[in-house]
Amino acid sequence: MQTENVQEDLWIPTTCGLCYSVCALKVHRVNGTVIKIEGNPESSTNRGRLCPRGVSGIMALYDPNRVNVPLKRTNPKKGLDVDPGWKEITWEEAIDTIAARLRKIRHDDPRKLLMTGTVTTQDEVPFARFFTMAFGTPNGWNSGAGNHCGTAEHLYGALLHASWAKQPDSDHCRYLLNFGSGVGSGSYYTVTGMAQRIAEARLRGMKHVAVDPFLSPSAEKADEWIPIRPGTDAAFALAMLHVLVHELKVCDADYLKHHTNGPYLIGDDGLYLRDETEKVPLIWDPVDGAAKPFHSPEIKDFALEGVYAVDGASARPAFTVLKEHLTPFTPEWAEPITTVSAATIRRVAKEFAEEARIGSTVVIDGKVLPYRPVAVMYFKGAQGHKNALLSCMALELLTEIVGSSNVPGGLLGMNSCSLGYPETGQPSWIPKADRDGLMITGYWPTFPPPYPPKEVRATETIDLRGLIPTCPGSSGALPVVMADPKRFGVPYQIEMNLQLGSNYLMTFANPEAVARAFQDVFQVSFALFLDESTYLSDIVLPAASYLERLSHTADWMSSNSAVGEWCYHVRQPVVDPIAERRSVCEVLLELVERLEMREEFYAFINLLLKLKEPYALDPTRRYSWSEIVDHRYKSLFGEARGLEWFKKHGVLKWPKQAEEVYWKPSSTARVPIYFEWFKSLGEKVKAQADEIGIPLDTSAFQPLPEWRPCRAHEENSPGYDFHAIYYKLPMQTFSGTYDNPWLDEVCQTNPFAYGVAINAAAARLKGIEEGDWIEITSVSTGHTIRGRAALTEGIHPEVIAIAGCGGHWSKYLPIANQEGKGLCFEWLMPVGLDNVDIPSLTQDSCVKVRVAKAKEQT
Amino acid sequence: MRIEVSFYGFVRDLVNTSKFVIDTSDKTTLRELLDLAAQRHGEKLRERLLSAKGDLAPNVQIFVGEHATTSLDEPIDHGHDLCTGVKVFVLSATAGG
How many domains are contained in chain A? Predict the structure, then answer.
């Protein structure tokens, strides 16, 4: 560009919105046009780094296929391939139509409104939740995450770490045992910052052991890869636990005594023994030879092992119950289940135990803290199964047994404890204990937190979360209930879906079945593109992208790294919204006025954003979106740190204190190693389900872990001899980025990104060579998908692996909809409660398939 | 004592009007107030707001004036003005992921 033609040359701080990591950006704008996006080194979230998605955001901003004007459907018929017959309308007509619908529903029964969202609109979804709460509906679904959601993993995040997600302590960890998560490799939370932190950890000597069916983008960076049969991670973990407590006799007794319910006495009925007066759990004091309330100041020591008589009843400490429970789970037992040799499991357990360095301490910020430099990570891969609840329990207990939870070197919550910005003390949250001494999260991004256990209620919501309150994330039951609410005792039918960028047809399971559940719903979509799910929409509104909108909640609990500095950013428009695109939050504010619900809406904002005077919203006047954002920032960080300050500086940061990062040693809240309350909760769920007439298998509500086969493990139909799994790519986010030309180009350089990873020897037995078109048929849905074979030694011989969410079919996505641009894994997975882990409502994403060379090779 | 009770959120299916005013004695407790509301709007309102044990449901937050309270059995005017507003928020359990 000629220098004399430059009237403007700016670098604008903002944040990325192409996944849930909230990386800090510097956007270069020249003469009103964005010409480059870089990472902002001022933020410790991503430390100046960006992934391919972040760099490519410029292409999404100026993509000619973006929705630029409001559209309404002219074709009343709906279906996966049915052209909606879009007709351009004005914003006025769109808002009039939507407001009229909403007004009628609110008057009739507000529960008939559903809101669906996704991780790339997570700055807008919380505000939309305020809207739906004020509106009066309990129904929301983060369906963009869909089957990618951590679900049961998040449950244990709450129960054991007081956080939505976890990370290894990248500053001190020396042994990362990673069951299939993408931490530090291109997916998972704080993705780019963590990639650098994990790389540095490996340089200083941390060993990364990846237990994964596939030599995935994460496993390929590990020191050791252990291929495992999908859905059997719990068996591996149980065998490790057996080795730890029975063969090596290793556990952190001090941690178990003071920070878990390990010493709580369990009766023969599997429940706590409680004291007569306070009804709190009892422990056994071996010094005095007496049972005492767990919080008694008279306790001289806690028994972890033994059998004791208390008031004529037999009781054992929870740790003893767990230890006895682990007896049969030997490495030899696990070997045929996992296909991992018993010797390997034993070796890993020994390495893990030695590296845990039980008893050692380290001084940080002048404080002597336990040093347990081992961390066990897992996410969707290990937990996304029919056995999710019990698998996660087994994996988590590895951390608890060696005491490496939220201490230096171990597994850290993101971010369990916040003491706030030093000048204001906000935002602040600290885990606390309930009457039983067990931990309640200080903060939880959705409502309510999973513990204390909620009352089991009739099916008031469309996702079964009233009936099954242990589901913390995207409910796998929602499309099932949506399709037939009466069967589940739901006294209404969803009539309208406010869709905030979620392409749910491609992120959950069998698109045909999901489409049937949604096709009779009046759908209003805030969309960047006319993706597959907008085929079911009645109105599509042109949404402003993250580079065109302002947000007050760019950051959330899991967008800050677990270590380092706190960083709070602004997401601000770097250009004015192009064409007729508008911010979702601004549109919602207009709807609030049209529906005359300002007083209620502002009341929720004040309550949930904790806006106090002088920053509380006054319902007698109308606020703009930027004024609300300004109030939010000033409420958190003081009068001098309002929106204008953030727009200029981009990020407010301060160092984390040791007691925030390593909060467990100073916390009086205990965590369970024996999940006592699961048992009685399951009984209540069963009773309520029976009353409604829903056949539910609630047997997984149990206090101790075990391995149970997925449906795929028991499927023996001839010819269906592969397990299909999916994994996340560093260069795509779910189904939302596949039309980006730069990301497409990157994917084309990698045969696995758009292809199907298959074991080379197994492929050749079927006459399949590198690059051949192959057909994959699901035994569960009967659907067949096509892709090119990518042969590798780096995959379990029983497994094929499919990356991300390709295989688009919308005619409005001209790059993504071409054959060979990835596969839509969801066609292989059935929709149904028999494919869901009932306690966590996790969708089982492991499926048995038939693989054959395609007859047509063009 | 005059109390203005406002309901917010996941009660709109049960309480069509978001506000009502009650003239009652100075000793009225929140529990009695909610009983009165349930008499007006049906027993389902009580089920929505209270647990089976009679405690406040975890997704319900009540403010007497500006003060959040979980005590159902204290007189409403305890420590506050005689004429006051009671705000009952029923939050929605929303899915994440």
Answer: 2
Break chain B into its structural domains and give their ranges.
2-90
Which chain B residue shows the shortest CA-CA distance from A188?
Answer: B97
Q: What's the domain range around A167?
A: 152-416+671-677
Q: Please indicate whether, in this complex, the C-beta atoms of A445 and B51 are within 8 angstroms of each other.
A: no
Decide which of A662, A677, A692 is a domain's last residue.
A677
pLDDT score for A557: 84
Average pLDDT of the segment spanning A174-202: 93
Q: How far does chain B reach from its first CA to its final CA, in angstroms?
A: 46
State how far the Cα of A191 lies from the Cα of A184, in Å rounded to an integer.
Answer: 6
Q: Is residue A819 part of a domain?
A: yes
Is residue A636, in this structure, part of any structural domain at all? Answer: no
The answer to which of A118-127, A802-811, B32-41, B87-96 has the lowest mean pLDDT is B87-96
Does the beta-carbon distance from A150 to B95 stay under 8 Å? Answer: no
Is A808 part of a structural domain of the chain?
yes
Sign of CA dihedral A452, A453, A455, A461: positive
- Checking if the pLDDT of A11 tops 90, the result is yes
For residue A805, the SS3 value is coil
Asked if pLDDT for residue A1 goes beyond 60, the answer is no
What is the pTM for the complete model shown?
0.96
- Give domain status of residue A20, yes or no: no
ipTM (interface pTM): 0.93
- Closest by Cα among A422, A426, A425, A406 to A414: A406
Residue A282 backbone dihedrals phi, psi, to 5 degrees? -100, 150
Question: What mean pLDDT, rounded, does chain A reach?
Answer: 95
Q: Which of A148, A472, A600 sits opposite B96 (nearest CB)?
A: A472
Contacts of B94 in chain A (CB under 8 A): 129, 132-133, 138, 140, 446-447
Over residues A663-694, the pLDDT tens digits come to 999 999 999 999 999 999 999 999 999 999 99
pLDDT of residue B96: 46
Q: Rounded mean pLDDT of chain B? A: 84
Across the interface, of A150, A455, A471, the residue whose CB is closest to B52 is A455
Interface test with B, best of A111, A455, A468, A559 (most B CBs within 10 A): A455
What beta strand segments (E) does A99-248 contain?
113-116, 140-141, 165-168, 175-179, 207-211, 224-226
Q: Is B18 on the interface with A (CB under 8 A)?
A: yes
Identify the CA nearest to A282 among candidates A297, A300, A295: A295
Give yes or no for a contact between A379 and A364, defined as CB atoms under 8 angstroms apart. Answer: no
Give me the CATH number covering residue A368: 3.40.228.10
* Helix ranges (DSSP H) in A428-520: 478-483, 511-518
Give me the CATH topology for the region B2-90: Ubiquitin-like (UB roll) (3.10.20)
CATH code for position A839: 2.40.40.20
